[in-house]
Hints:
Radius of gyration: 28 Å
Strand content: 5-15%
Strand order of the largest sheet: 1-2-3
CATH superfamily of the largest domain: Intergrase catalytic core
Helix content: 40-55%
Distance between the termini: 67 Å
CATH architecture of the largest domain: Orthogonal Bundle
Shape: elongated
Structural class: mainly alpha
Number of helices: 14
Largest sheet: 3 strands, antiparallel
CATH class of the largest domain: Mainly Alpha
Amino acid sequence: MKASVEVICYKVRPLKNGEFPLMLRVTQARKRKYVSIGMSLQEKFWDFDKNKPKRNCPNKEKIEKLIATKVTEYNTLILDLTTDQREYTPETLVNTLNNKVQARTVDEMYNHIIGNLRKNGKLGNAGVYNYSLNSIREFSLGSRSWQFRDIDIAWLKRYEEWLKKRGCRETTISQLFRTLRSVYNKAIENGIVKRDYYPFEKYKISRFDVSTNKRAITKEDIYKIRELDLSKKPLYMQLAQDMFIFSYFGAGINFSDIALLQFKHIKDGRVYYTRKKTSKQVNFMLNDIAQGIIYKYASPFYDDEDYIFPILDLTTHKTEQQRHDRIHKSLKKVNRELCKIGGMIGVCNLTTYVARHTFATVLKRSGVNIAIISESLGHSDLSTTQIYLDSFENSQIDEAMKNLL
């Protein structure tokens, strides 16, 4: 049964100032749901027979405009659901519209996503979307009023050609188009654009995917890095060595998650933490080597809230943005030192990511089930790999990690 929508003056609960709230009432099969429209007025200004504000009502035009807008929103949603033969209730109608993204243009949708990511501390992902938005703005000569239906196959081809002329690599083009596609999908989910306009069914962006060179090194190289005596070298080079080795023996934990580790994350010889990028719960056992690195940086009077590694400081890096900036700056320094360390053992382009990739590759070469550690760990499908990891018992993963030595 189709629902009906109207705005009434709700006399049941007067406000403290003596006015009555205006409520939108959704009715379907004797079920009703009331939603405030954010306005109220005195009883004498409402025509209860015609169910509308009287002529002498203050802000009459503003109230009528708001009522028309609210009723139209609900009736449009009801029409869309009815056309798609989807079931609904007064409560689901209200929930859908309350959670609806208030965006109409591509620019507004990008900003909504970026805002949510920053609010939830996903500053790295926010940066990816912001980079994509700035690229599209530049391509569109600064225009911020373009609609999703304007992005058709011809538009995408022009954008692709523009990126290539600017010297963008295939990997960069792939990231930009995947980000744009993600924004378009979110716009469809929120009813901002109809799926009929969706251009990515025919315009395939998978062709931009290219295989990159393997970045794993051998176990012998790991031993060489570990055995280097850097005691007379700068402290940051020593830190780079320790973080690389800790990542390798720490189930490929990445730099950001290492920087965020606190002593409270260690329990019964295991590290328990939440991945910054995927929000997945992860835990791994500490072997003697990883434990020794932790002891090296632990002060005699450390607190559970203290960070393990000397990158972040509780009194200095208080906000998410401060922590993000500090980690990003430290990562550059560590990778610069790792490049020097690589030169000492004859390995080119040594970075923190190499430790993560080597962890996965060494286990794979040792015959460990691909479902536990996949070749693309941390590269092309992190979330799927983590789902596989979560499905195995700790004992299975612990046994697999013995192959690291």
